[in-house]
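Section 5: illustrative case.
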């Protein structure tokens, strides 16, 4: 059943409160990374990079858009099915947030680029399972995660290249 074939489990004020919870969770994941390394942009520029690496200013706008899409995707799945009706999708969602939050401290603050690569590969694997799980609940929610999947795949390749160039 698609989101148009059944009424949402949450509507009105509860749905808006749920959106706030999902936004807060995504913001917390983003802040965990950002606060762990306030000099990430400068650190990134000091690293030897492959020729195809984007400039550091690209990451902020891309992640802002992706984080908004991640929050809306998770919220919409919850809104349509609730926790019990979308347990697998929302569990994968929670795991990807934790892995997402862990990457920046590993890569920049700790300088553990190999460990960060393991983290981002795990993140990509979780997203590979989460995207179809989200599509099964809502085409819109699944589609909102697709750019995130592609960006994480690109970031994993960049992580590998930077790790190898700076080993």
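Designed sequence:
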């Amino acid at each position: 059943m698609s989101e148009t074939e059944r009424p949402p489990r949450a509507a009105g004020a509860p749905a808006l409160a749920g959106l706030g919870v999902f936004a807060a969770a995504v913001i917390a994941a983003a802040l965990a990374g950002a606060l762990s390394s306030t000099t990430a942009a400068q650190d990134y520029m000091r690293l030897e990079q492959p020729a195809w690496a984007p400039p550091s200013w690209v990451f902020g706008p891309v992640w802002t858009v992706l984080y908004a899409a991640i929050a809306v995707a998770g919220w919409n799945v919850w809104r349509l099915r609730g926790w019990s009706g979308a347990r697998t999708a929302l569990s994968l969602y929670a795991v990807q947030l934790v892995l997402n939050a862990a990457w920046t401290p590993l890569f920049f603050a700790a300088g553990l680029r190999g460990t960060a690569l393991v983290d981002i590969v795990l993140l990509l694997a979780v997203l590979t399972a989460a995207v179809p799980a989200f599509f099964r609940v809502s085409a819109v929610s699944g589609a909102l995660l697709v750019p995130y999947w592609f960006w994480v795949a690109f970031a994993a390749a960049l992580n590998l290249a930077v790790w190898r160039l700076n080993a």
